[in-house]
Amino acid sequence: MCGIAGEIRFDSHPADQAAIQRMIGTMTGRGPDDEGLYSNGRVAFGHRRLKVIDLSDDARQPMIDQDLGLGIVYNGCVYNYQDLRQTLTEKGYKFFSHSDTEVLLKAYHAWGKDFVRQLKGMFAFAIWHLDDGRVLLGRDRQGIKPLYIARMPGALRFASTLPALLAGGDVDQSIDPVALQQYLSFHAVVPAPRTILKGVRKLPPATLLEVAPDGTEKSTTYWWVSFGPEEDERSYSERDWEDAVLETLRRAVKRRLVADVPVGVLLSGGLDSSLVVGLLAEAGQKDLSTFSIGFETVGDEKGDEFIYSDIIAQHYGTNHHQHFVGSDIALPALQDCVDAMSEPMVSHDAIGFYLLSREVSQHVKVVQSGQGADEIFAGYHWYPPMMESDDPVADYAAVFCDRDRAEMCQTLAPQWQGENDHVLPFIKSHFARPGAKNAIDKALRIDTEVMLVEDPVKRVDNMTMAWGLEARVPFLDHEVVELAARIPARLKVRDGGKYILKEAARRIIPSAVIDRPKGYFPVPALKYIEGPFLGLVRDVLHDPQARARGLYNDAYVNRLLANPSDHITPLGGSKLWQLALLEYWFQRHGIAAHGS
To answer: What is the DSSP letter of 270?
Structure first.
């Protein structure tokens, strides 16, 4: 797990080494153990390293293989690298390191760009040819590892984070008005390839981008999910599907133990992380470290779920760490949390993951997490009604979208409103794609491919990597995602959701954490915005930079400030915090105020 950056020039100018140095200088959290820089004429690449596999200097990056005529910078972990290495050795390849990085280089040489189909893991990479500077950029199937791109006259730059690209300079920082609408309505999600800034785009998941020496680009999507059972699965019983879930999850969890350092678990106390712990224990993992976080209770909303994480920790005898966070800790840390965001992240969970990662990083370098199970196994409340939907787009939007077009016009100042809605058409076009016939499957697919990538997955990556902590997500193993898509929807949404996963889990973990009410990382003070948090929000929205930017309608902002708890989104988020977080992110990342 690392941070990568690079510049590819298409004109007569050499690549800007100083810009690359500034870019990797912003990513010390992602790679606190080492840094490297390679430059040769029209290309330059930088790397920050977190040592997890092959801790020696043989695995340093940028990695150059003169015999193959290739170089690479890479962020992530390929869990089946040892099997691939064996196959490549049998083909005659010689290795100078024990890293997965070198396996990627030789796999590309052996199989061309189709090598990505053999990778099991999370990754973002740039591979270049030493002779002519051709470059291949790639991102893993579920977009677990980020890759941001800035195109500018005569050059293309890329980096693991958006702020790294800003540090490189010469990036168009004007606000993308389409992305602004998406952020304010589509649950703070800006789907790839857009970001909130016009000058920065992100490579979509499961995508390869070939960049020729003259700047010509060719993009390829190498993986996608189709819903519905395969022919030999149509006769499966419920028990057969449970067996398949457990078998596939066992492989996914075991794969994510590959490391030359200890691997812990982020244990919320919910079904998903508890099942990860249970499967690790079943596999014979000893001396497992687990970690939980809790916040202050606000009103009737409890701020921790220690009662459930304790059940699992005691049941399996883990080395458990509880971390309680009061407002006196959370508020000062919020600024640093926003600094760690590559894009604005409105979810209350962000500060939870940030503070938990700070604690966990003092004990281990790698953790497994239960992220992704709700999206692929239908754990959210809006899925069951979609089973009977006659108007999937409208029904999905009614429960998922934060604002309709009318409220969007109330929210934004006139110059930012635009003439068209950019959210409903996006949902409609995604639902119209082949590969998912039923309304429920269309909803699950958009959440798996878009919402999951741009909200919880990105949040976990950004907040853990801020502290040099590698998070691995077994529920997003592509074989698990493919299996979940094939399971009939009725077996996922039954009894409120995640039925088939719950029934399979009963064979592994105590029922007390399966039949409990659904939970999350609760940060009540950021949902209801009171006390010092309200003061911070008011200061951000009244800051001279906010007034100069002029995004919002003053009357709407004042209405939200007067009664924050009265303005909650359909998914339970604060509309006031959503506005404030975006502006806070602009201010913290030095985004200058200018017009549309």
So the answer is: S
Closest to 476 in 3D by CA, of 383, 379, 373: 373
CA angle centred on 425, ends 422 and 427, rounded to 5°: 105
Closest CA to 322 of 333, 308, 332, 337: 308
- Is the pLDDT assigned to residue 528 strictly greater than 80? no
**Residue at 294: amino acid letter:** G
Exposed, middle or buried by CB within 10 Å (0-12, 13-18, 19+), for 9?
buried
Distance CA 505, CA 499 (A): 10
Q: Name the nearest CA neighbour of 373 among 282, 439, 448, 469.
A: 448
In whole numbers, what is the pLDDT of the chain averaged over residues? 93
466 pLDDT higher than 70: yes
Question: Which tens digits make up the pLDDT trace of 4-38?
Answer: 999 999 998 999 999 999 999 999 999 999 999 99
Alpha-carbon span 76 to 203, nearest angstrom: 15
Q: Work out the average pLDDT over 408-415.
A: 95
pLDDT at 1 over 80: no
The CA–CA distances, whole Å, from 411 to 184, 231, 422, 440 equal: 9, 50, 15, 31
Instruction: Give the pair of three-digit tokens for residue 463.
Output: 């907040």
3-state secondary structure 489-520: CHHHHHHHCCHHHHHHHCCCCCHHHCCCCCCC
